[in-house]
## 1
Amino acid sequence: MSSAKISLGQFGLVILLAGQLLLQLDFSIINVGLAAISASLKASETELELFVSAYGLAFAICLAMGARLGDNFGRRRIFAIAVVMFGLASLLCGVANSVMFLVAARALQGLAAALMVPQILATIHVTLSGRDHARAVALYGAIGGLAFIVGQVLGGFLISANIAGSGWRSIFLINLPICVLILLCVWRQVPETRGQRNVPVDWSGTITLALLTLSILLPTALGPSLHWSWTCLLGYVPILPLTALLWRIERRKEERGSFPILPPSLVRISSMRFGGLIAIIFFTSWSGFMFVFALTLQSGAGLTPLQSGDALIALGASYFLSAVVVVPRLSDVRREAVLVAGCLIQMVGLCLLIVTLEWVWPNPGLVNLIPATALIGFGQAFIVNCFYRAGLADVPHEHAGSGSAMLATMQQVSLGLGPAILGAVFAETLQHSNLYLTAGITTIMVELGLMVILLAAAIHRLLSQRGVAPVSAEVEAMIVVPE
């Protein structure tokens, strides 16, 4: 079924972007409710790590599957099914009475998000062109920063307002009317499209990737509470065999002309390896920082959910302004140079945050945190902008879709593992010092060390790429096109 002549109206675009906003809100709103959830369900830091990571990992593992299902069975249909699933999962989160039930419900939310996101991007690409397409993609990209700000404020308000005694549950239940509204409009306003041919889902690769990420997540998250016993460390044993198995499965699929979620041929391209390094270091640090900083402010400094959310408004606002106003003006600057600048700005912000926390603790006023968090958000926008540009730099034009899908998978896996990895550092330090300030600063220093590694790699890449033409705008525009 060809969709070349089908056009998406403005209201249809609003419906799709509302779906994206819903997912982004749910991702950012969670950190505000960590302390309230912990107190209500008597959850430990380890259980909170699993709760936060469940969404991101389910999303990452199933993202490629979501794109294939939309291509094969119709993007509007899969989008609608995903909205129903997301609403159901939100209801389950809202009525959860145990941590493990909440973890399972969050994983279901992540699965629904993985089904929804590819349909939004693909529908925009096949139904819009020219200026309308550019505007839609720009709006899609800007939603991330907007959702972060709204999520922090809305989440803090809902929990503090305690509407009908719902407390933290309201941050999930608020999704239900939004899902209903989207469902009522999507069938009339969003045209049905699908791929020109059916592409099989890489089930074996997806399952193996899931097992691999779990073999990293579980022992890392459980390590501090189990005191890194030998039974805990045994959980890492499957990592190498599963990595080898995944490589073998994906290589065979690629040799047969199939469509693996992680094509081995792309791993041999230097820019893709560099993009993977950015994903592993930056996005792991990013999500881990958000998790740890929220716990430090709420459980350590005693800030309310509303105050904790307000403390990060400057970060979200500076990220939004940097991404929308500053970064587009740097399109002619080498991507590696922009990445170096972003790393330096964020590192200065992290150092300033450490000094600020030491200075104002245990009463971190919101105004005192603005300079540091604003710098962090400003630099983050630079790095995010360079991620796909740097990763796709050496990828042949005809493989840009596969390359972007692979980078997206690595990005989401890293976002999912971040709370577990940096959360383990936080929990381990907290066990030894029993001071939230010490645990928070130690974790920030670990993030600084990771950023030093990324900075060194970016400088090396910048020096080695002199004289090489930057990635074309056409290739960059393909980063969201499913192949």
Note: The chain is about 80% helix and 0% strand.
## 2
Amino acid sequence: MPSVAVKLYSVFFKLLLKHKLQQRLQMEDAASPFGVTSRPEESTAPANPSFGPDGVATKDIHIDPLTALSIRIFLPDPALDRVGTKPRQAPDQDRRNSYGGACATPPPDHTRRSSYDGPGSQNGNGAAAAETAATGTYRGYLPSVVDARHRTGRSKKLPIVVQFHGGGFIAGSNTSTANDFFCRRIAKLCDAVVISVGYRLAPESRYPAAFEDGLKVLYWLGKQAKLVECRMSMGTARGLGVGEVRRSQIVDTFGASTVEPWLAAHGDPSRCVLLGVSCGANIADHVARKVVDAGKLAEPVRVVAQVLMCPFFIGCVSTRSEIKLANSYFYDKSSCVLAWKLFLPEDEFSLDHPAANPLVPGRGPPLKCMPPTLTVVAEHDWMRDRAIAYSEELRKAQACTEDIAIWVKKYISIRGHEFSY
């Protein structure tokens, strides 16, 4: 059981939270098409494109000019491993590496074209190259665009984890200190490229803004993969005909500035996992359903699994845990109902709204079509029974689902735990 100190802290936390929620409910409509993705009172961690002590580099990208939607990419250093044998080099020859260092003279018969710096030299392995010796910053480059007969190796491709942070749709951020710490651990321990989504928050952007942002990121990933494929198919090495050079320039005209080099070199969109925490699990589940509906239209992105951690599910008919633990620690039921009032449009508010209750009929494709799902619930979470019930429905539908209830305590103060938030 939690200590007396935790219980007292929980009481004050809930009083302060309810006060903030009530204030926002009483404020005039602050609707904004552009939206916001973070709150001023939240501590944030700056992006760092250099590989730090934990071996993870990060960068922020604003992917939609019409809204505040942004992402933070977490790239683990195992992504820089090369497939195949390492090239031979003279003992006195310095090699350019992903952490900086001296720059060697590259072979004269190969070229690489970066998405930032234009044509340049290619390393001996024909894969992603590195950046400045002064800062150790890793920019990443497109996989080598050379004749197919001379392709000797490529960067290591990693699965992509698309992560949606928690916060009841009204708080939280993909750049917060806690979320940055969590995503770094996922990237390092799972050996995956993590994309944390900075979706628009309520009440500035109510439903379905956050859900649309989640789907928009998946479509953006698909666009990235297609641009890279087009670029590789039309790219050319130095010394080919004028016609080939012109075709490459056409690709550069509409594609080079939009290609994200880290994903182009290291991301595998055909192995995409959706991971959501709290309300982020609701977004992940919605995006998974939409991708299933889209079918082949979503290719080359393929959602192979989803992870729902402490989903933010609710309903008009209370479950046993919703009755027994309604006044639980930190986020009790009354506070969460206020959050739903801020998120859902006033004329659509219902605890049985499809965004809130996964068990209402007519939510989307048959459950048997859903990807394999890992459900994580917390011991003192009053929403746990509805999450388990949803997992049971997936089992009954004979979906390829792994129903694993991991009883972890929701202690947001223990930063050393991989599930802390």
Note: Residues 203 and 342 are 5 Å apart (CA to CA).
